[in-house]
Specification:
single chain, 134 residues, alpha+beta, 4-stranded antiparallel sheet, binds zinc ion
Length: 134
């Protein structure tokens, strides 16, 4: 069987839509290489490893910051244009669990809007409480 090097596989994947690539269950390293390749002509130089890791976590329904599963739980969308992922037909803001919101113990409910720090770029951003299947 033909054996492809990892770099060749990433090169091939870079022709695919991100929604298809997510279904392949890639390791974080491969996913990051895919994103780097796909975004190479876009301004993303300021993005740190934490951004790639957070985007990876969110693609698999985990908290951007701590990797807790978000599936049916109330969680928070961080409206941060620095840290959004815009690619193909998706436009994803970072999603974090309630434990990762620096909210001074304010209660966050569905639809609630608060201002707190983005987990990635540490700017003050709007946070919205959401549930995935509601
Ligand atoms: Zn979290
Ligand atoms: Zn941010």
């Amino acid at each position: 069987m033909l054996k492809l090097s990892e770099d060749m596989i990433i090169e091939v994947l870079s022709y695919l839509d991100i929604n298809d690539v997510i279904k392949l269950d890639l390791s974080f390293d491969c996913f990051k290489k895919y994103l780097v390749l796909r975004l190479k002509n876009k301004k993303h130089n300021s993005y740190k490893n934490i951004w790639y890791k957070g985007v990876y976590n969110n693609q698999y329904n985990k908290c951007f910051k701590c990797e807790r599963y978000l599936l049916n739980d109330l969680h928070v969308l961080v409206i941060c244009n620095n840290c959004t992922l815009k690619m193909d037909d998706i436009h994803n803001y970072p999603s974090i669990c309630l434990d990762c919101v620096d909210s001074n113990n304010r209660i966050i409910s569905r639809g609630a809007i608060i201002t707190s720090y983005c987990p990635c770029c540490i700017n003050k951003r709007m946070h919205i409480g959401i549930e995935s299947y509601s």
